[in-house]
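Bench log, entry 3. Co-assembly request; chain sequences pasted below exactly as received.
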Amino acid sequence: METLERLIEEHPFCHGMEKGYLELLVGCASNARFDAGQYVFRQGEEANHFYLVRHGKVAIEIHAQERGAIILQTVGEGDVIGWSWLVPPHRWMFDARAVEQTRAIALDGECLRRKCEEDHNLGYELLKRFAYLMAKRMEAARLQLINIHGPLD
Amino acid sequence: MALSTDSAMTSPVANPMIPVPWRVQKARRETRDTFTLTLRPANGEPLPAFAPGQFNMLYLFGVGEVAISISGDPADQENLVHTIRAVGTVTRPMQRLKRGAVLGVRGPFGSPWPVEEAEGNDVVIVAGGLGLAPLRPALYRLLAHRQQYGRIVLLYGARTPRDLLYQRSLDQWQTRSGIEVAYTVDAAAEDWRGNVGVVTTLISKARFDPVHTTAMICGPEVMMRYVIMELEKLGVTDENIFISMERNMKCAIGFCGHCQFGPTFVCKDGPVFRYDRIEPFFKLRGV
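Structure output for the full assembly:
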């Protein structure tokens, strides 16, 4: 059976992380499974977790009254969902919905914030990784914004 | 390995400035603004050979002429296939052509994708929007000689699910052709089950050996720029990256200068360029 520690260590987000930090993460981790159509979280809810996706696909969505749900991005195996746990006021900014059955490692944000306050090196390590992730997401979002394939209807 | 795009050139027609009449065999709507014309020679002459990546000048009599990449199978001895976006004064009326209509054709022109030079390598094809059309002949060739290549990866991005070209082929290639296919759209409603995000986000997830990879890219220039950056980050070298450039082509044989790109003409030296050979001009604004 695969242990949580092994699963976390093998996830791309954690590649190269010191063993001591991995152990700290494991202390805040649990397995999570979402069926197709199930919401991982909804906009406005308290953001107490982030997720390391192992399998499946999750749509990050925004709901517009006139257009219904608009998918902003999909994430899948090897991706991370959520950084609102890290940024006050710790509320989700978007909806996240499993498009297909999805397995992930859920990391408890409150638990991690506490550990980061106790050990700033861990905090810096996590911030570096999230900063890279945020930069990549922003780059992709900007490319989406300029609409390189031409105008939408 | 230094790759060249010069070796697989095919010989153009006897007088490259005179259009030859071709008849529309089939006209097929692909998306809301894109269609595919299948042509056969009106005079029954044999189909001129073309190499993947080359283009023809299609002449709508009395209206005008446009450069269109060939999008069909290079092994097809009967049909010449072009996929066209209806955006201008020539291509909009061209979209209304029915079976039996006659077009003028000059070509084939230009440099091809390095499909032979890539043998032994992994091949990564990255397409954006209509950019899949000029890459499809290369894909047909790779699939016909599947055993000559390592991994073959096709990454494709379009505006919305309705803008994805060749959807049936994409699904067939994905399921039973021994290539890894991933496609994504920039925007979608909640009933879409596929990927959403720009095509660059697919690159780091694809499985290939960057050191032994030939990359072929076609799409909007800004997309190609970011795709190249992602490939370079993974370790693909510039001499193994090939891009297809688009400029306003008129004569198609390097006389008129309309398609000048730095010291080259896209019609005659391109449209497929090895990236390291044009990199300084590719990064210049306004070239």
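Chain A touches chain B through 27 residues (CB under 8 Å). Residues 72 and 134 of chain A are 15 Å apart (CA to CA).
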